[in-house]
Write a structure and sequence with these properties.
Blueprint lengths: L1 E3 L20 E9 L2 E7 L10 E2 L1 E4 L6 H13 L6 E6 L2 E6 L4 E11 L10 E7 L14 H7 L17 E2 L4
Parallel strand pairs: 2-8, 7-10
Antiparallel strand pairs: 1-7, 2-3, 2-5, 3-4, 3-9, 6-8, 7-8
Length: 174
């Protein structure tokens, strides 16, 4: 896992670091409610990561900042609107390699909500609230979830630490 600097001002669209292919910039948002985080079971209708536990993800669209994209994905995938959010903070951005070895720039966020009940779209079959310390009990989670939870401060270290020079692995797409 590589941590990168993502300094940019309001309204500025960050540029991916050298080596990140076009279209390989995504957001990963962790949703919190009363000290618990939500894990989302990916729909079996999806071509990748189907049936696996996940956080909220999405490709950063052209012209959007990662924060704008995170807010859009939250609305689409959970029904959470600005009025439902108690907090919205950006975590560290990380570079994670997919199963083919291609790097992805992942902008991480933590969103605190006042709503326990979420409205899922077709991308998820269900969700479950759990403590961050119990996430590792979900053996059928995406391989890179621990790295995202570490980048957002929910875990102190990933369960599958990358060797020096060996990036973490991301599923085939976001």
């Amino acid at each position: 896992m590589s941590v990168i600097s993502t300094a940019y001002g309001p309204g500025c669209v960050p540029v991916a670091p050298a080596g990140i292919p076009a279209g390989h910039t995504v957001i990963a948002a962790v949703v919190e409610w009363r000290g618990r985080i939500a894990l989302f079971k990916r729909s079996r209708r999806l071509g990748h990561d189907s049936g696996l536990w996940h956080c909220i993800t999405g490709f950063v669209e052209t012209g959007a900042t990662p924060e704008q994209q995170a807010r859009e994905e939250l609305l689409e995938e959970t029904g959470l609107e600005a009025k439902d959010l108690l907090g919205f903070r950006q975590g560290r951005a990380v570079v994670i390699n997919d199963s083919c070895g291609d790097p992805w720039l992942v902008h991480t966020f933590t969103v605190s909500t006042s709503r326990r009940r979420l409205r899922l779209d077709w991308e998820h079959e269900s969700y479950r609230w759990t403590s961050a310390s119990k996430v590792r009990r979900f053996s059928n989670r995406v391989s890179w979830l621990d790295e995202v939870l570490t980048a957002t401060g929910h875990l102190s270290n990933p369960v599958r630490p990358a060797l020096i020079g060996e990036p973490a692995r991301l599923g085939a797409g976001a």
